């Protein structure tokens, strides 16, 4: 991020080390402090001990003591070695079909980038919609929305979207720091961040946390499928998609409003790409097949994860994806590990009665409010708390179950409330640059200052919150009864 | 492998493609042929269908139709989508503690290579034992045996051992193709391959298939721990370690027998390395801690996998291992996937009664033989069948359970028989260059022709088989009652 370079790097590194050490000491004190605190009346000792480890693990990530992988692995080891949870329960997340779906889909998404299909779709959209700055903004949202259902990792999708936005910006004559078109660059780059907040909310399979949240919601009697998610998300999300580019256009105020050259550049790029290559055809066919099967999964009684495995197998067998490609995906393994660990710990916390206990206490405090006011207050609080998190999934794992529980206890109808929280889990990612790893490429592009990022992030999040509450609430109450 | 370069590469590639296509057609025909064959009387249809998929998946790897990842992923998708096995059973391998132990240990082993501790231990051994060619051979076996318990991947260990053997060979003045010292190079390189066959057998945690086999043996009432494995393996394996270098020395007949310069070169290399670096100390302390805890795990009621997670967490927290290192370990993810998939399928095959059925049939055919003769015949057959396999673990998964079952039905005592098969699973790796991925670095070094590899491989395997049967059988009968 080009704005931070001014400080002396040695001093910065030393103060970072000191800050990390302090953060680690705080984490240790927190873990020990909670652990040795007597468990509140009505709560099992194991539940309290697991909460101490889980809270310390999440706090460690929030305050920068450890990366999420280190934190979760240490918490897991502590939880099992102290006998707080049984080993087989601690490892159960690794065998969870929903988590495996995400792992496999990460690998499958690699093929879209590799074969060039992602870039082709991007250029196609620009060639059709890129005549004006506003049109370019809409084309970013459109491309993202179209490719999203096949990308359960919004981070992976940002890897496809960013080169497109960058090439669109470059086609429009924008360079970081260049005079006269700086705000055009900021607009396009923030469209990328903002688009991911809503494209991820539109489709069940467009973001890793969605099926994970659905799995948690299942515990409250809400069954969410690919189809029912789409119905619930469609109206508020399409409203947000329709209004967000215009909103950002007005807030940022790009210097240039017409880009008549962009469609031509895109057509030239498409021309240079030539006809669909065999690899692109194979990937396209595989994805269409997977999306069709995912859509029909509920009716035909097919397992979604097995469909993803079939797609992975097809791409490997065709040679589009090679063992060499998989060998580069060690970060998928890291994600798999911390994800599975935190998922299992969160699940055990719930199973041991902690969520219910916390829910009852919080519900007691919000007791006097009507379900509508309580629900809205909870959604707003849930969104604001994301300032403390660096991962959408960690936030979901830590708080979604608790908030859902409190809402249900206060009489908020479970289906609309769960969906609002799940959509919020997608759109709160924009509020800070570190709010989602999907932001990082855009935030580091050099087109957006730290100030821009926090200001536009807060505005975008507030805008989304307003739309989902105002448009989403009545729609959800209507369709999810 | 330098010996194969003579052929026209285009023709070779084309004929390889044709061979792959034929192999895939054969795999498909095999799968469909078995699937639509009526299930033999006394066997559930699901068990027969799963056998069709499992056999086709293993056959596909053996005949080169697909790599093991592709094959297992396709078999899994077919098994779940056809309803042959339930999704949760199919994914259960991912949550298995034993498999997770291997995954974590793969990552932890990376730190030994990265920090330079592996090379230091190697140079130390050479400085002590490297005065003669035979001494150099023994030093390879010694280093390997000492580092082995911390390396559950013999492939990962080969990555530490190979640079050592190569630098020893170079210190002794050997280059591929150079006149006068060619057989010295062959001797040292084959010592690497042969050493891995026995070091892997010595320690429970020295080879991924060992705990996996122990998990399968548990189903026959045999509980294997770190300690009981070591007792069982010690006498026959130390006998093999003591005799193998001398045996290979006599068979290969190196031109040079004295290498007085090697200890000095090693001391110079150690000098150049300087004192133990902080990273090496951290890794050494972590490994000692892990090995101590693993040794005490049974007594203290600690979970071995959680100990491995603790070690991983410590290495990540100390910064010896970084997220960037993990990001390069995508092949660990690939191994995790195929391993977990085949493990679960093999387990389900057993659960559905297939192994028992096959065991009864085979037992019927070997019916007249005494338990001793039957046991020996089964071990010899098990070893010979490895000519068909390119993976030790795939062999174990496919045949260990079946052979164990047959032996038990014929009255062979389960403990000595299971251990002999498990040791064989380690030592049969030498019989072909592709018999284990741990061979590949040595086989590709240019010091060994294809002829050497098959001839020395067959001799080493026969030698090991003789030692384990003659020395191991009475020892195992003595200690495993």
What can you see in these coordinates?
Two copies of one chain form a homodimer. With 481 residues, chain A is mainly alpha-helical. Chain A has 22 helices and no strands. In chain A, helix 7 (133-147) packs antiparallel against helix 11, helix 11 (226-252) runs antiparallel to helix 22 and helix 18 (371-384) runs antiparallel to helix 19. Chain A is globular, with a radius of gyration of 23 Å. Chain A starts with 8 loop residues before the first helix and ends with a helix. Chains A and B meet through helix 3, helix 4, helix 5, helix 14 and helix 15 of A and helix 3, helix 4, helix 5, helix 14 and helix 15 of B.
- Low-confidence spans of chain A: 1-10
How far is the first residue's CA from the last residue's CA of chain A? 46 Å
Which percent bin holds the helix content of chain A? over 70%
Q: How would you characterize the largest beta sheet of chain A?
A: none
Query: Biggest interface pair, residues each?
Result: A-B, 47 and 48 residues
Tertiary shape of chain A:
globular
Q: What would the average pLDDT of chain A be, to the nearest integer?
A: 86
Oligomer: homodimer
Q: Strand fraction band of chain A? A: under 5%
Q: How large, in whole angstroms, is the Cα Rg of chain A?
A: 23 Å
């Amino acid at each position: 991020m080009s704005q931070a370079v001014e400080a002396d790097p040695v001093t910065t590194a030393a103060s970072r080390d000191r800050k990390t050490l302090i953060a680690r000491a705080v984490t240790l004190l927190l873990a020990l402090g909670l652990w040795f605190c007597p468990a509140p009346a009505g709560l099992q000792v194991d539940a309290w001990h697991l909460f101490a480890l889980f809270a310390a693990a999440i706090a460690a990530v929030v305050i920068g003591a450890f990366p999420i992988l280190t934190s979760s692995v240490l918490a897991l080891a502590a939880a099992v070695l102290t006998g707080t949870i049984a080993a087989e329960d601690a490892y159960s997340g690794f065998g969870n079909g929903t988590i495996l779906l995400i792992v496999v889909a990460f690998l499958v998404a690699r093929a879209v980038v590799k074969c060039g299909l992602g870039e082709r779709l991007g250029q196609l959209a620009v060639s059709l919609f890129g005549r004006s700055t506003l049109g370019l903004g809409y084309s970013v949202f459109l491309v993202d929305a179209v490719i999203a259902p096949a990308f359960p990792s919004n981070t992976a999708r940002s890897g496809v979207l960013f080169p497109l936005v960058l090439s669109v910006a470059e086609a429009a004559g924008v360079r970081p720091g260049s005079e006269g078109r700086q705000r055009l660059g900021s607009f396009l780059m923030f469209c990328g961040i903002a688009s991911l907040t809503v494209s991820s909310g539109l489709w069940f399979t467009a973001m890793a946390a969605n099926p994970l949240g659905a799995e948690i919601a299942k515990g409250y009697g809400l069954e969410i499928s690919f189809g029912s998610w789409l119905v619930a998300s469609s109206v508020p999300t399409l409203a947000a998609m329709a209004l967000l580019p215009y909103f950002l256009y007005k807030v940022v105020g790009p210097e240039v409003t017409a880009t008549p050259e962009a469609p031509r550049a895109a057509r030239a790029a498409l021309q240079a790409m030539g006809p669909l290559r065999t690899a692109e055809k194979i990937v396209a066919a595989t994805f269409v097949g997977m999306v069709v099967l995912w859509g029909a999964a509920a009716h035909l009684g097919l397992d979604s994860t097995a469909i993803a495995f079939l797609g992975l197998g097809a791409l490997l067998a065709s040679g589009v994806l090679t063992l060499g490609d998989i060998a580069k995906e060690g970060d998928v393994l890291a994600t798999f590990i911390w994800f599975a660990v935190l998922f299992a710990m969160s699940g055990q916390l719930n199973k041991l009665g902690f969520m219910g206990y916390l829910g009852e206490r919080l519900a007691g405090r919000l007791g006097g409010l009507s379900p509508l006011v309580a629900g809205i207050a909870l959604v707003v609080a849930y969104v604001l708390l994301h300032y403390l998190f660096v991962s959408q999934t960690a936030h979901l794992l830590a708080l979604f179950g608790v908030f859902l529980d409190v809402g249900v206890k206060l009489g908020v109808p479970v289906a609309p409330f769960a969906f609002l929280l799940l959509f919020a889990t997608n759109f709160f990612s924009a509020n800070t640059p570190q709010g989602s790893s999907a932001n990082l490429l855009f935030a580091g592009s050099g087109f957006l200052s730290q100030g821009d990022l926090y200001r536009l992030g807060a505005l975008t999040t507030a805008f989304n919150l307003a739309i989902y509450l105002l448009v989403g609430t009545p729609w959800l109450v209507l369709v999810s009864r």
